[in-house]
Amino acid sequence: MSNSQRPPTSRWHEPMGLALDQARAALRADDPQGHPADVPIGAVLLGPDGEVIGRGHNRREVTHDPTAHAEVLAIREASAALGRWRLDDCALVVTLEPCAMCAGAILLARIPVVVIGAWDEKAGATGSVWDIVRDPRMNHFAQVIPGVREQECSALLTDFFASRR
Asked: In angstroms, how far apart are the furthest CA atoms of the chain?
């Protein structure tokens, strides 16, 4: 099936698989000092040619850094790889809807496409609780493509939190 015949979200299945791999890496973040695993959220940033140029998974627990969200880490890595902060020809693929901080980083980096696995009904900022990336008061906007491999992304988080109770 050609890209033009595929359902709109199917072209994102493989990149979301890479984001899911990143999310699973957050579960393996326990280290010898006993830092707990972090919430399994993963992100990949695709460059202009569709290749992965940035990867990230939550590392807040290991680094003791409240900004060490998957999206922010992927944006930092992609910016370093391209040697520029404007990522206006890239796409971010993330397993959970970005929070307000990450939505702000997406706009500041000028990322035009955000692909989401699961919605975050508590703190999402790209369409559920807030819609920062499409707010007409902002000077930049992003297209949001939701629901890519949503069940897999949701199950990873549900299982994680169930194991913590």
From this structure: 51
pLDDT bucket at 158, cuts 50 / 70 / 90 = very high
Catalytic pick among 61, 71, 97, 150: 71
Strands annotated E in the chain = 42-46, 52-57, 91-96, 113-118, 143-145
Active site annotation includes 121: no
| Rg of the chain (C-alpha set) | 15
Give the tens place of pLDDT for each residue, 138-150: 999 999 999 999 9
- Is 63's pLDDT higher than 80? yes
Burial per residue of 150-165, b for 16 or more beta-carbon CB atoms within 10 angstroms, e otherwise = beebeebbeebeeeee
The DSSP secondary-structure symbol of 126 reads B
Closest CA to 104 of 129, 79, 70, 140: 140
d(C-alpha 103, C-alpha 130), whole Å: 10
